[in-house]
Specification:
With 115 residues, the chain is mostly beta strands. Helix content is 0%, strand content 43%. The strands form two sheets. It has a six-stranded mixed beta sheet, with no helix packed on it. Strands 1-3-8-7 form a four-stranded antiparallel beta sheet, with no helix packed on it. A hairpin with a 6-residue loop joins strand 5 and strand 6.
């Protein structure tokens, strides 16, 4: 069964940092362009960042650009999201999937930012 497993969220104060990670399972991670998504309370899930399979190109939602950094380690089948200067509006459950959202969704990892 192809699904990622997210971890690394937590409760932090504004301006803090976290580094969620996503472990790939059951699919050829190194061949997939991957993305991070998030779903805030009461809102729909949204795309926030993508990285190509070669670790060469990244794209970001405008509201997170400059604060979030997506990266990957194909040898470890793991995707990362370095989050800096957190804001309360970053509070959400964070998920990873490929850029086509073709994988089964994992449980996500919760990030809660207090002001």
């Amino acid at each position: 069964q192809m699904h990622p497993m997210e971890s690394g969220g937590g409760f932090v104060q504004a301006e803090g940092s976290l580094r969620p990670s996503c472990a790939a399972s059951g699919f050829p991670f190194s061949n997939r362009d991957m993305s991070w998504y998030r779903q805030a309370p009461g809102k729909e899930r949204e795309w926030i960042a993508s990285i190509d399979q070669f670790n060469d190109r990244t794209d970001y939602k405008k509201s997170v650009s400059g604060r979030f950094t997506i990266s990957r380690d194909n040898a470890l089948n793991t995707l990362y999201l370095q989050i800096s200067r957190l804001k309360p509006e970053d509070t959400a459950v964070y998920y990873c999937n490929d850029v086509l959202m073709s994988l089964n969704w994992g449980q996500g990892t919760q990030v809660v930012v207090s002001s």
